[in-house]
Specification:
By secondary structure, this protein is α/β, with parallel strands linked by helices. It contains 14 helices and 17 strands. Helix 3 packs across helix 4, helix 10 packs parallel to helix 12 and helix 11 crosses helix 12.
């Protein structure tokens, strides 16, 4: 595309989160009109912060961000802020505009139709399921009809139908779109190029191609750099050995030895810094509570939501030790509501055996205290506060250094997910309740997490809309709330 098609250009932009965490270091790159780009990077690298710099919510410390005059930008956020949960649908969409929109109702209906969600405008946001809230977040950006659409993990909580609907929309979208996601299949369906935020160098690397193309390009590049370094290292050692040999001979051969040392130094200087791949979390085991026997959970009835109305379904089900139950159903049917009621012990028609410890992975992490540090939150899961054990477990989930002392609310969504898994390891539950545990998590971590869940020896209830993830886990029984 022509240079005139650049709508945003970063020039030497640097930014630090707080005073000790660098995000960008003199970064320069363009975003061109009509492009569909993916923003990649490790959990905590600062992808959402980069979106904040583009929207103006965050300001750079150095450098300039050039934005085309009159360019409208809208962002579909990862999660709905807690303070907005009490709003009605109408109030939620009204917040997307600086001035009151008197003709907003038909616009709301139009964007809700685009995201395949139909709801009364006086309904409270908190009453929607996680998947329905994901659709509302997307619609809140679309209603602004932006020149640049920023999507932050838009497939989280969406069921298969929802992802297909979103994919088709992006493919047909005629304006510029930048997406943060860990869903490879989804990204491959529309991505033309990738901006990669390297968590180690704090630079932006630019690639052409779809998600898989870029992963392959990075792999090939790393292999070439490693091969080159291995050859140079071998050359340096050989020249050093020759230099030592000739130096021992003395006389004129000392000059030869000097040249050999120079060649060895040149070879070492020519070695390149190999691009470091995203670090993957270590293999882990979620220990099971001791002395578990008999039925851990009994269900005789549960509530589902159909046509916005609750309905009681009678079904007898029992889960024992080492049994895994998959809970299925479309967005809005009541899966998360059922899991929450089970975890809180308030589910009517279901009972958890007394004394069983429940490990609850909640999709919005609201069962974590955002005002407490990672250290404090992890200690809450331990009967005895053992610093070394806590830190060893945290390190396995890449929660090291300053992160341990950081408030949970200041972490990226991906890091909050890793904190939630570290808590489960330290808790040693008898019953695991997992609501969309792949949300926000780097794709490199997912096989490790799947293996740990597959091998879990206690009782487990899982909700996930990611078939590739579920396929890696032993499932003993499936309960579809939609049938």
């Amino acid at each position: 595309m022509a240079k005139d098609d650049t709508i945003i250009r970063f020039e030497g932009v640097s930014y630090e989160y707080g005073t000790r965490k660098p995000i960008l270091d003199e970064v320069s790159f363009p975003i061109r009109r009509g492009m569909k780009l993916t923003l990649m990077g490790q959990n905590g690298a600062g992808k959402s912060t980069l979106f904040g710099l583009i929207t103006g919510a965050v300001r750079p410390e150095d450098g300039i961000i050039h934005i085309e005059k009159g360019l409208s930008i809208a962002i579909a956020r990862q999660v709905i802020p807690r303070e907005e949960m009490k709003l009605t649908v109408s109030e939620f969409f009204q917040k997307m505009f600086p001035k009151k929109m008197y003709d907003i109702d038909p616009k709301i209906d139009e964007v809700l139709d685009v995201v395949n969600l139909h709801a009364p405008h006086d309904r409270l946001i908190k009453s929607f399921s996680g998947g329905q809230q994901a659709r509302l977040l997307l619609a809140s950006a679309l209603i602004q009809d932006p020149d640049l659409l920023l999507l932050d993990e838009p497939t989280n909580n969406l069921d298969k139908e929802g992802i297909a609907h979103l994919t088709k929309f992006i493919q047909q979208y005629e304006k510029t779109c930048v997406v943060i996601s860990h869903d490879a299949e989804f990204l491959n369906s529309f991505t033309q190029g990738v901006l990669y935020l390297d968590v180690h160098t704090h630079k932006i690397e630019q690639y052409v191609g779809n998600y898989t193309d870029v992963v392959d390009q990075i792999r090939i590049r790393v292999e070439k750099e490693n091969s080159k370094n291995a050859l140079l290292h071998k050359t340096a050692i050989a020249n050093k050995e020759k230099a030592n040999f000739f130096a021992m001979k003395g006389g004129n051969l000392r000059l030869v030895a000097k040249r050999m040392r120079q060649k060895a130094e040149e070879a070492e200087e020519a070695m390149v810094d190999v691009r470091r791949e995203d670090t993957t979390i270590k293999s882990f085991t979620i220990p099971t509570q001791d002395e578990l026997s008999g039925d851990i959970l009994k269900i005789e009835s549960f509530k589902v939501i159909k046509n916005y109305k609750p309905k009681i379904v009678h079904k007898t089900l029992a889960i024992r030790k080492n049994q895994h139950l998959l809970l299925q159903g479309p967005n809005g049917i009541g899966k998360s509501t059922l899991l929450e009621s089970l975890a809180s012990g308030e589910a009517e028609g279901a009972e958890i055996t007394k004394g069983v410890k429940v490990g609850y992975y909640r999709q919005d992490f609201s069962n974590l205290d955002f005002e407490k540090t990672v250290r404090e939150v992890l200690f809450e899961a331990m009967p005895k506060h053992m610093e070394e054990t806590m830190r060893q477990t945290a390190a396995g989930f890449l929660l090291v250094g300053d992160v341990i002392g950081t408030k949970v609310g200041h972490l990226s969504e991906g890091q909050k997910g890793l904190v939630a898994f570290a808590r489960l390891v330290l808790l040693k539950p008898g019953l695991l309740i997992l609501d969309e545990p792949t949300n926000h998590i780097n794709f490199r971590h997912l096989p490790v997490i799947a293996k740990a869940l597959d091998e879990y020896k206690g009782a487990m209830i899982l909700v996930s809309h990611v078939p590739e993830f579920v396929a890696q886990i032993r499932i003993d029984e499936t309960l579809d709330l939609g049938k």
